[in-house]
# Entry
Amino acid sequence: MAFVTIRNTGERIEGEAAVRDFLTANNVYYEHWDTDKVPSRLQNVFTLTEADKEAILDSLKDDIERLAQTRGYVKWDVIALSSATPDLDSLLRKFEQVHTHTEDEVRAITAGSGVFIIKGGEDVGYFEVHLTAGDVISVPENQPHFFTLTDERQVVAVRLFIDPSGWVAHPYADPSFEGQS
Ligand SMILES: [Fe+2]
# Structure
């Protein structure tokens, strides 16, 4: 289950309702899916064939289509990152730059874990959203953020898009961020 830490204060926010309230107040959408629906042979597996990815999408079809309908997503896929991913370190270095997008960034974690670091309002500053299987997050368009893995360094996530071309990272130069990573 997701928890949030606020970088400036070290405050930790736990529990589904408290996490959702905090994220909502910071324009970040959050919900939780039952990832037990994923076929057991694909749970906690991080090296996936295209057929495996299709099977994961199919098992979560109802949740995906409901979310897609309410928020206007037209396309979805599965991304898997682990030590088996070629050049994982350089990929992570690329991910770990603060950036924005012209559409929201949606990720439903289905295995492993990951962290979104997001810029909140002036009074909040950067906060970390720690996600595990079942956590679904949408970072709004134009909100500075980046993604990284946790110490386990493996994740599987469903991505949903309004327009695939929207998933272009625009670097966000933020002097207030320097030295905080
Ligand atoms: Fe992003």
Summary: The longest strand covers residues 105-119. The helical segments are 16-25, 50-59, 61-71, 88-95. Residues 68 and 74 are 7 Å apart (CA to CA).
